[in-house]
Amino acid sequence: MPVIRAKPEVRFSIGHKIFASLFLTCAVLVLLMLSGLRLTLGQGFERYQTLARQAPAPQQARLAQEFMSEQMRSTTLIGVVALALSTLTAAALSAHLKRPILRLLHGTQKLAGGDYKARISVSESDELGQLAQRFNHLAHTLERGNESRKQWIADVSHELRTPLAVLRAEVEALQDGVRPANPEAFELLHGQVMALTALTEDLFQLARADLGQLNYKMRELDLWRLLTEVSEPFQSRYQKAGLELTVVRESSRLEALVRGDADRLRQLLSNLLENSLRYTDAPGKVELRCRESASHWTIRLEDSAPGVAPEMLDKLFDRFFRVESSRSKKLGGAGLGLSICRAIAEAHEGQLQAGNSSLGGLRVDLTIPRYSR
Questions:
Q1: Which fold has domain 219-369?
Q2: Nearest C-alpha neighbor of 337 from the set 288, 282, 277
Q3: C-alpha triplet 103, 107, 152: angle, nearest 5°
């Protein structure tokens, strides 16, 4: 993974370099012209004066004409030499300015051709150097996006393959008479169909979120009241699973006002509570806290063991990511729930972050901007 370096300090901008190139070229031309004219004009004029004093009056006009002709030839020669040297100077300077532009051009051609590993060496500290760094950052982003797309297709294919394989095997067993057509067989088929339905619905939700097509009905709502409504039905389920669910309000305000979509936020909170119910070992404990900061409301969910390795915390919200250790029980889903939660949080101008819980398990913080009437 390439390192994106900080923005370099611009000592000499491209405008300064172009100005310096033009100035240097003109200066070379003028200095050569002046030096040559001073030399040839001085020598020629002294020789003309000497010959004019010695020559009779009728020949002085011819000498003056010859002097002028000689000066014209000398001036022309000096101009040609000065122009040639100035051209060489301009060519060297333009080649110096052209090199980074050509590197950018070749890199752009590679990138347009699908070579997302194309990178440009950065040696300048001017605007072209900054442009080269932006190009490298763009190429790195496109490379990651291309890899994510390929991984996305592979993961979707893998997730669809398992329930489809089970369905096919069960249907073929029913057709061949190996398995009797009893309620148990149909219950198994129904379970696989429901798993496929849930997976395709999650995929559809994520696809719409990527396209910005998820409908959000934003309005003023009380986040604490919504949290209470969502957590109440989970109490009995948590008790049956041997878990203690505690909901705490850490604010003196009567209302935790935010601007959001109640249904989407309810979906987000339900997913978080479902994950803790699914992965927390019994006997265990889950805490939900609603706290206030200067500009945000934060809902913090913490559960007891098992925890998540620190190096895996940043990947929890990646699509199809599932921890393949203590928290990956057979009850685990397709690994899309937290990705959908993150999309909902971002649509509310909020954040969803994971960390290690003080209870020994996972901590998830949902942060949403406060709303003032």
A1: Heat Shock Protein 90 (3.30.565)
A2: 277
A3: 160
pLDDT in tens, 149-160: 776 677 677 667
pTM, full prediction: 0.54
pLDDT digits (tens, 9 = 90+) for 248-292: 988 777 788 899 988 889 889 988 998 888 888 889 999 999 988
**Whole-number Å distance between alpha carbons of 367 and 373:** 19
Sole residue written with tokens 């073929």: 172
Domain ranges for the chain: 14-113, 151-210, 219-369
Name residue 246's beta-bridge partners: 287
Tokens representing residue 169 in the block = 């095997």
Distance CA(289)–CA(301), nearest Å, equals: 7
Angle value at C-alpha 298, between 213 and 281, nearest 5 degrees = 95
Place of tokens 């250790």: 325
Residues 6+ apart with CB under 8 A from 262: 217, 219, 221, 226
Whole-number Cα distances in Å, 295 to 154, 273, 292, 367: 41, 25, 8, 10
26 vs 31: CA distance, rounded Å: 8
Between 3.40.50.300, 1.10.287.130, 2.30.42.10, 3.50.50.60, what CATH number should domain 151-210 receive?
Answer: 1.10.287.130
User: What residues pair up with 351 in beta bridges, in sequence order?
Assistant: 367
